[in-house]
Amino acid sequence: PEPMIRIDRVATWIFIAAFAMLVPSIQFLGYLDECVAVALLALAVADSMLNTGAWRRYRLLWILWGIMAFYAVYSMTVVNYTSRMPIIIDTLIESKPFITLFVMMAVRPVLTGADKKLLRGIAVVNVVVCALVLLLPNSYIRMAIQHISYGGIFIFLSTLVYMMCSIRSDGTISSHNKLTIVVMALTGLTCGRSKFYAEFVFLLFFLFAYRPGILRRITLRQIAGAALLVALVVAVTWRKFSFYFLTGNSGATTFDPSVVESFARPVLYFTGFRILLDHIPFGTGLASFASFRSIEPYSGVYTEYGINRVHGLSPEMPSFICDAYYPSLAQFGIVGVALFAWLIAYVIRLIGSLVRCGSSPQIALYSVGMLCVLFVLIESTTGTAMVNCGGVMAMLILGIVAGRAIDRLSSASVDQSV
Fold first, then answer.
1. Residues 316, 296: Cα–Cα separation, whole Å
2. What gap in Å lies between CA 72 and CA 74, rounded to an integer?
3. Which of 104, 209, 260, 262 has its CA 20 to 30 A from that of 404?
4. Cα–Cα distance between 70 and 367 in angstroms, integer?
């Protein structure tokens, strides 16, 4: 019999609702990402309880919670740099993006024609609204979306949703929709973020240049194109990379160790590396370093490593503590870094089946998945979108793509067995 509630449709409605509320989430719906994660987690639990054997589909989710439970206990008993409640809250914060990814991968929702039409409409509205906001004076931008960077993030994610929903039954995207995608992405250049410039370049590459096996059949022309791509990425990101990681506010043209503590982000990276070496193998624990919940109460890690007087990292002025995602991995130690790297490699290999398996490679869908991975990796260098609404939305999209890849692998296995 047909079930009364279809789990895949509920997951689709959650995705559509989250996407529709993406732009106002920063200013008016601050807990949207937590609500999405909790809703999907509840959906997985309900599915596992109501349907015999369904729990096996969510094995990655249960493994995640096993790992996070271990780190929570470890944080409260072994290292104990902060109090119990921040650790519990940080458990949810750090789990959010992975919950959304694993549940969407397990449920494997398939968007209907009506779903795609609705999502394309929302995507266009999101881009138009963000583009208009980015043209306003800074005071109005702060009122609308808090920071100009969110405009670029929302535009890029909306462009990816439009791209995913424009893929035809043969796996391609029409020239008209490609033009629309480029125009939508172009509006994001007004945010002035170097990270967006890099993401935009990769979008153009996957939209117009990528072909399966491009690295195996490499030619001089492709080498020249790749070199041009790298040069373009470096050119558009170098100034801010130099400021954030080399010269900072020192005004020097080369790295000067004597001013390392005059700017917060390099200090976070440098200290995070020291933590990985000092606290082998599990790090300093949840809510202890470079995460939002390590601010109040103020984590003892900052005092232990002598960075509690750095501007932006001090108890009186902690504004830059939660300023990049990668340093926060030091909380999980070398084991956590290895697990994160494994997950990225696993997802890349999984969505790669979209172009490796089957008779017709799904290049466009694979491109959407890879652009989500690149978005997460790039944004994590100098921001915490990974654990905010931007990262959760990217993981929702990636989960849909990965679910299609799992379906494709299953079909390929059935065909081989027959």
1. 11
2. 5
3. 209
4. 35
At 323-378, the pLDDT tens digits run 889 999 999 999 999 999 999 999 999 999 999 876 688 999 999 999 999 999 99
Instruction: Label residue 179 exposed, middle or buried (CB < 10 Å: 0-12, 13-18, 19+).
Output: exposed
pTM: 0.89
Write out the DSSP string of 239-305: HHHHIIIIITTS--SS--GGGGGGSHHHHHHHHHHHHHHHSTTTTT-TTSSSSGGGTTTTPHHHHHT
Distance CA 332, CA 339 (A): 9
pLDDT digits (tens, 9 = 90+) for 211-260: 877 656 666 676 677 677 667 766 665 665 555 544 444 444 444 444 44
CA separation, residue 231 to residues 197, 225, 235 (Å): 12, 10, 6
**ω into 212 cis (within 30 of 0):** no
Helices 389-417 and 84-107 pack at an angle, to 10 degrees, of 40
C-alpha distance from residue 247 to each of 28, 177, 325, 386 (Å): 36, 42, 21, 26
Task: Name the burial class of residue 69, with classes exposed (0-12), middle (13-18) and buried (19+) by CB atoms within 10 angstroms of its CB.
Answer: exposed
The pair of three-digit structure tokens given for residue 126, joined into one six-digit string: 């999101």
Q: 138 by DSSP, 3-state: which? A: helix
Task: State residue 22's pLDDT score.
Answer: 93
Asked whether the predicted pLDDT for residue 149 surpasses 80, the reply is yes
Could you report how far apart the first and last alpha carbons of the chain are, in Å? Answer: 27
Distance CA 318, CA 144 (A): 24
For the chain, the residue count is 418
Give the whole-angstrom CA distance, residue 370 versus residue 211: 13
Handedness of CA 332, 337, 338, 341 (dihedral sign): positive
CB 86 within 8 A of CB 294: yes
Distance in angstroms (rounded) separating the CA atoms of residues 260 and 270: 9
DSSP structural state of residue 205: I
What's the rounded Cα separation, in Å, for the pair 116 and 164? 8
Q: How far apart are CA 130 and CA 136, in angstroms?
A: 10
| Positive or negative torsion for Cα 275, 98, 193, 199 | positive
Task: Dig out the tokens for 307 from the structure.
Answer: 């960075």
Model confidence band, residue 113 (pLDDT cutoffs 50, 70, 90): very high
